[in-house]
Amino acid sequence: MEEIAKERPPGYRYSRRGTLALIRELSVIDNRRNALLLILQWAIAIGAGAVAIQVDRVPVYLLAGLVIGSRIQCLAVMMHDACHGMLFSNRRVNDLIGDIFVAYPLGFSIHLYRANHLFHHRYTNTLRDRDYRVQRRDPDQHFPKSPAAMVWLLVRSVTGLNFYRMARDSRIWAPFANFHNPGRFDYDYSLGLRIRYVVWAIFFYGLILWSPWRWQILALLLIPQFIWANVFNRIRAIAEHNGVADEQELNGTRTIIPTWLDRFLIAPLNVSYHLEHHLFPSVPWPNLRRLHVHLMTDPAYVAGAHITQGYWGVIRELMPPPASAGADLPATHS
């Protein structure tokens, strides 16, 4: 059904005037730290894979897959930071390293992801926000859900029965989906960027296929990526904007205070402080928690912010109380 893009009421936006000096301080990008962090993710993933191949036992492969999947989630968050130009302070270096060592291994492109994601920031929870439109047409993202429906959603996610929906909606970030028709998703994916991807793919996958352990490497790379994309990343994406009132900017996005298990499986690198990121997208990941602590000293923020304890808390929020459990409803946005 057609819907007119909603007008924001007066006073919708949170006042940033008292925070600007701190934001300038928190918006400094630590190039050395991010470079070491990126090297660490690859070192852990390669090390876990090498141990699994050397031992060649199913339990070790499963453990390695868990470790590699958690590093894949870290790379996904770093791709998000690179999209905002916060991986490295030099934009060319940011985009080049972000593509070759972060986005391409996940099947995406920094440039294609950026073209969509910046619209999401500018038009959050409106029809000009593609993420919001995806929520509206995807039954998996209609909330609240009954406990039985929520369990069924998680079962289908773990088993991959709804993976096609995640793949369909993320194709706009994928170089191979934009190679022959680079303008199909309202972004001109230039010839130079397409050639860069082809050269990378020939080298990266050629090196894997040349290896005598090609099938083990591909399984260790692709299976955890499949699981993390369709289960843990789905939970993280659902948590960010589904089931929020959106009566004001502070309750149009959810911040989750993560447990240690949440940080390992779902939300590494402070990505769960999503409201803070939407309010101040220039602040890189190491400073988001400090920003959250500062904002919690503001009574207006404390009174209005949608903050949830843990991702299990989000799942509970997205299920109605037993007395009101019923049919699934569309994603709740005012």
Summarize the structure.
Helix content is 59%, strand content 2%.
What does this structure look like?
The protein is mainly alpha-helical and 334 residues long. The chain has one domain. The chain is built from 16 helices and two strands. The chain has helices spanning 20-26, 31-55, 58-83, 91-103, 110-122, 130-137, 147-159, 163-170, 175-178, 191-210, 214-241, 260-265, 274-279, 288-295, 299-304, 311-317, and strands spanning 254-257, 306-309. Strands 1-2 form a two-stranded parallel ribbon. α3 (58-83) crosses α5 (110-122) and α7 packs antiparallel against α11 (214-241). The longest helix has 28 residues, at 214-241. Residues 1-5 and 324-334 have low confidence and may be disordered. GO terms for molecular function: oxidoreductase activity, acting on paired donors, with oxidation of a pair of donors resulting in the reduction of molecular oxygen to two molecules of water. It comes from Sphingobium chlorophenolicum. The chain crosses the membrane at residues 35-55, 93-113, 187-207, 213-232. This is Fatty acid desaturase. Keywords: Membrane, Transmembrane, Transmembrane helix.
Number of helices: 16
Largest beta-sheet characterization: 2 strands, parallel
Distance, first to last CA: 16 Å
Overall tally of domains: 1
Choose one word for the global shape: globular
Number of strands: 2
Radius of gyration: 20 Å
Strands side by side in the biggest sheet: 1-2
Q: What percent strand?
A: under 5%
Domain Fatty acid desaturase: 60-300
Keywords: Membrane, Transmembrane, Transmembrane helix
GO molecular function, one term: oxidoreductase activity, acting on paired donors, with oxidation of a pair of donors resulting in the reduction of molecular oxygen to two molecules of water
Pfam families: FA_desaturase
